[in-house]
Amino acid sequence: MMDGINYWIHAVTPLHVGAGRGLGYIDMPIAREKATNWPYIPGSSIKGVIAEHFGASEESVRNREEHRDLKAAFGTSGSDKNCAAGALVFTDADILCLPVRSFYGTFAWITSPFCLMRVKRDINFPEFPEGIRALVANDSKLIREGGKIYLEDLDLKTQKSDEAGKIAESIASSVFGENEKWQKVFAERFAIVNDDLFTFLCESGTEVSAHIRIDGKTGIVQDGALWYEEALPAESILTGRVWCDKVFVSGITEKDLFERFCNGIIDLQVGGKASTGKGIVRCIFGSR
Length: 288
Hints:
Elements: E1 4-11, E2 40-41, H1 43-53, H2 61-66, H3 68-74, E3 88-90, E4 93-101, E5 107-111, H4 113-119, E6 134-136, E7 148-151, E8 154-160, H5 162-175, H6 180-188, E9 190-193, H7 195-204, E10 207-214, E11 221-231, E12 237-244, H8 254-261, E13 265-269, E14 280-285
Helix pairs in contact: 5-6
């Protein structure tokens, strides 16, 4: 893999990155991967909102021309011979931890072996013993007598695992590194389920809400104006990678771009429904 750093998206409010009109009962579904049907955020969306955050959106091309670091990072458009692509390259943000309802512990952050392997290809994730359908940390608040956890309408025979605890600590330190209390909250509610069960929960555990449109003249619901909108629930965690391609602006280095635009924690608004408070996220960049 090309040299770069990981970035993490932590949804503070429900997150709707749409995929157009739906074919089923959900009129406005979220973007999903073709092969897995797991939710994701396109890398172009992430790069776009970061560009806007730093004042380099498409509407402010002049700002890019006046600030060479913006031009180097996000490029310029048009037919001018001096236009060039931006050097920063963002992959899609893949789902890593999906929050689902839990009978104990309020809710659980769930992931799966394949999710973990996509973040780190050589990870040593624990295997599931016969009959075990979930693994949790030793101090988990999800498990109760009888060795089960209860997620949505599912009761899963569960086992405590040192390896699961170590993975939880690793993710928590990356996402909540500035807050030890939240690191503990995450580890206590973290669970690894098998890939098939994770797929089922990604399809059935998202947030679906009904919306209506009010007729401006009558002040009542407009005929036929009822639709259902899907969103990733608050506390979802996604992850991707960013690296630096060739820098076309002289005097600007790869190090300069990472330090300026891919450093620390940035608060962003991603996806639609900004006026209703949707899509508020924390974007956390890893270290190089």
